[in-house]
Each structure stands twice: as structure tokens, then as C-alpha cells.
Design goal:
Largest sheet: 8 strands, mixed
CATH architecture of the largest domain: 2-Layer Sandwich
CATH topology of the largest domain: BirA Bifunctional Protein, domain 2
Number of domains: 2
Shape: elongated
Number of helices: 12
Distance between the termini: 48 Å
Strand order of the largest sheet: 1-10-11-12-15-9-8-4
Structural class: alpha+beta
Order of helices and strands: HHHHEHEHEHEEHEHEEEHEEEHEEEH
């Protein structure tokens, strides 16, 4: 979330940025409610001072009936006013959580169609093999039994395809470790506070993309970004510790499969998949450089696999609430003859850190919020789609990319 004082001092900037992102936020109403909260807080603080004064007068002797009555009345009034303060604070926070992060100056304005291509790599393949048809014929993929056990868009990976997924993980892990990331496995469940801290506002299971646990303040994670955001919640890090780089491996659970207007065939968009996610905690002055570093790692991974792609600077209208800037990498699909999403990386500045209260103590003793960034190393189910489209052969074999062969016992074909 944004700092209310920042919003107060930069009202036009916040309103403009929210509008460009497509959010309808009444900033004037928010500030009016905060004015009310401040006024109530001042009254509460005045009463608390008076209460403490009366408490001191009651010490060391027998208090007068008038003083006792005054203290009793003050206690009652203070309790009512504190309740009012809690209500005012709740109103402010409810709106504050809906205010999106401001965008960087180099973010393109407009909707999804206004996102700008900033780089391309590799030659487009003109022919490819449909991943679902190929994997089903090889008996590597079973959606039918997945649906029987868990419902539509759940699946089993079998045999060599499951081994290929593991090889992809090992390859991706080797890459992020080269760049100084610490490998972590993470909880598959997080609390509503962590979800809100990530910029996901939990409502009910019917209203969101997350799966909620009945009767618990818990939801299944949609990405390792969620538990990694909460890893340093309510902590103050020392300046010398930053930046911190984590690579989180987890299952991801999403209700988005079958979303209208999205490409959903086979493994491309499913309810559950595994993913290796990069995450960084850093000083504010480091975040723009680290954003470029995360993007470069993503490119290194996919260039190693020989997959053609382009990079786009996502337009404001297609940015989520937490991101100040986001890059998407889209691979060239030889089957569909178009670019399709594969990874992304976002600079969330202090938006998430403020919500989970993660701060840094500078060498001079001052304390401020850190910046957080996230980026996908390898989304494993979708990566299998990409590899099968590009490396499945007409004779029914799969040509293993050279970088994956060490993780498959040296095998060159599957």
C-alpha cells in the first residue's frame, strides 16, 4: 500500500497513476476520512494525557469522590472515542488498500495494446508440434484421470515428461544460484495479511483467483511471490544485509484456468502447476538496477533453451496494483504463429513492504521501507508447452535441448 502522507502530498500524481492503471479511487474521500481519523486521534491523545494525570493524582493518598467520578467518566468517554478511532482507521485502511502503486515515468500509457516491445531474440520457427496431442500420444500426460481425481484442468505428468519437468527445474535452479540467489522451498498456504501485502485483496472463494480454506484464515498460494513477500514481515533489516535474493520453488494454485479470452489449451493454463520464482528485497536506490538484473536472468535462461522471444514494457492499464513497472517475456509459438506469455518481472517499490512492515535500518540509524521485486525463472507446466512445441519431432521423438541433457542422464532424445 501507499503511505497516506505520500498520497496527501502527491494527490495529483496518485490520482493520475490510478486512472492510468484503470482504478477508480476517490482520493478526496480518502483524505477526508483520514482528516476525521486524525481529529479523533487528537481527541484520544488529549484524553489519554488527562487520564494519566488523574492516575498520578490518585497515588499516595485517598482520592476524593469528585476525582474518582471524574476518572470514571473519562474512562467511559475514552473507551467510546477509542472505538470511534478504530472505526475511522478501518474506513481509511479499507480505501487505502485499493489505491494502486504509482507508475514509473517510462511506463507506456494506455491499455494492453499500448505495451511496447523493447527487444527481440531468436529466429521464429515456422512449424511446430501441438504439445497436448504429442504428450497424450506418448502417454506422458493424463488430463482425464486428473479430472476424475481433482476436477477439470488438473493433470498427471508421467514418465519422461515428468523427468523433463524435473530437468527444467534443475536447469533453472542452476542459473539462479549462479546469480547469487538462495534456494528456498516455501509454505503452500498464506494468511490474508500476506495476500493483502502482495496486493491481493482476499474476499471470498467465489470472488477471487485464490483457493481459500474453509474456516481458516488461509489460502493456497498462486505463486511463491506470496510467501516470499511475507518472509521478512514485521522485521527491520540492516542496510549491510541488502540486497537479499531468494529463489522460491512451490506449487501454484489458480482458479483462472478457462478464463475468457485467454489461451487455455492443455498445460498452458491450468489450476495447479510448479514454478521457480525469483524475489529480491533491496534498498530503494537499488531496485531499478535489480529489475534489469532479474530480466537479464530470465533472458539467460530462455536463450540457453534456444527459445525465441520478445520483451515488452507493460502499459499502465495492464499493470496490477503493486507494480510500478513490469516486463513480460513472450515466446514465439510456432504452433499458433504468435507471441504468448511465458515469464514476467515486476518492481513493486515499497508498496508490498509497507503492507507487510518490512523495513531497513540505515547506517545513520534512520529507518525506511525496503523495495521488493519478483520475477519468474521457470513456470514449469508452461515451459513444457514451449519445449514440446519447439523440440518435438515428426517421428514421435523429443529432441532434448543440450542444456537439459546433464539432468536427464545425458539422454539426447526422449
Amino acid at each position: 500500500m501507499l503511505d497516506i502522507n505520500f498520497i496527501r502530498n502527491n494527490t495529483q500524481l496518485v490520482e493520475k497513476s490510478a486512472k492510468e492503471k484503470g482504478y477508480k479511487i476517490d482520493i478526496k474521500e480518502l483524505l477526508k476520512l483520514d482528516d476525521d481519523r486524525r481529529e479523533t486521534l487528537q481527541k484520544v491523545e488529549t484524553m489519554r494525557t488527562e487520564r494519566n494525570s488523574i492516575a498520578k493524582q490518585m497515588k499516595g493518598g485517598k482520592p476524593t469522590p469528585e476525582l474518582i467520578e471524574k476518572g470514571k467518566k473519562l474512562k467511559e468517554n475514552l473507551a467510546e472515542l477509542e472505538k470511534e478511532l478504530d472505526e475511522d482507521t478501518a474506513k481509511v485502511n479499507a480505501i487505502l488498500k485499493t489505491v494502486p502503486n504509482i507508475i514509473f515515468e517510462d511506463v507506456p500509457l494506455g491499455g494492453e495494446e499500448c505495451s511496447k516491445e523493447i527487444k527481440t531474440w531468436g529466429e521464429h520457427h515456422q512449424t511446430g508440434v501441438d504439445h497436448l496431442d504429442f504428450a497424450t500420444k506418448k502417454d506422458w500426460l493424463d488430463f482425464e484421470r486428473g479430472a476424475k481425481v481433482a476436477g477439470a484442468k488438473f493433470y498427471y505428468l508421467k514418465g519422461d515428461l515428468a523427468l523433463l519437468e524435473n530437468a527444467l527445474l534443475q536447469y533453472g535452479l542452476s542459473k539462479v544460484l549462479e546469480h547469487g540467489f538462495t534456494f528456498m522451498t516455501v509454505p503452500d498456504l498464506v494468511s490474508s495479511r500476506v495476500l493483502e501485502g502482495c496486493g491481493f485483496n482476499p474476499r471470498t472463494s467465489d470472488q477471487s483467483d485464490e483457493y481459500y480454506i474453509e474456516g481458516e484464515d488461509l489460502a493456497l498460494i498462486a505463486t511463491a511471490e506470496m510467501p516470499l513477500t511475507g518472509y521478512h514481515m514485521d522485521e527491520i533489516l540492516d542496510e549491510d544485509q541488502l540486497p537479499l535474493f531468494y529463489a522460491g520453488y512451490s506449487a501454484c494454485f489458480r482458479k483462472e484456468a478457462g478464463a475468457y479470452g485467454k489461451y487455455t489449451r492443455g498445460l498452458f493454463r491450468v489450476h495447479q502447476f510448479n514454478k521457480l520464482e525469483m524475489y529480491a528485497f533491496c534498498l530503494p536506490e537499488q531496485s531499478k538496477e535489480i529489475h534489469e538484473k532479474i530480466l537479464a536472468i530470465e533472458e539467460d535462461i530462455w536463450q540457453g533453451l534456444g527459445i525465441p522471444y520478445h520483451i515488452i514494457n507493460i502499459a499502465a492499464g495492464d499493470l496490477g496494483a503493486p507494480a510500478a513497472k513490469k516486463y513480460d517475456m513472450e515466446y514465439w509459438s510456432p504452433v499458433n504463429q504468435k507471441y504468448q506469455e511465458i515469464t514476467s518481472c515486476s518492481n513493486c517499490t515499497d508498496f508490498q513492504a509497507r503492507a507487510v512492515n518490512c523495513r531497513v535500518r540505515r547506517k545513520d540509524g534512520t529507518i525506511e521501507f525496503v523495495h521488493t521485486l519478483n520475477g519468474t525463472a521457470i513456470p514449469l507446466a508452461r515451459a513444457l508447452v514451449v519445449l514440446l512445441e519447439n523440440y518435438a519431432q515428426e517421428d514421435g521423438t523429443f529432441k532434448v535441448p543440450e542444456v537439459l541433457q546433464p539432468y536427464l542422464g545425458g539422454r539426447k532424445t526422449l
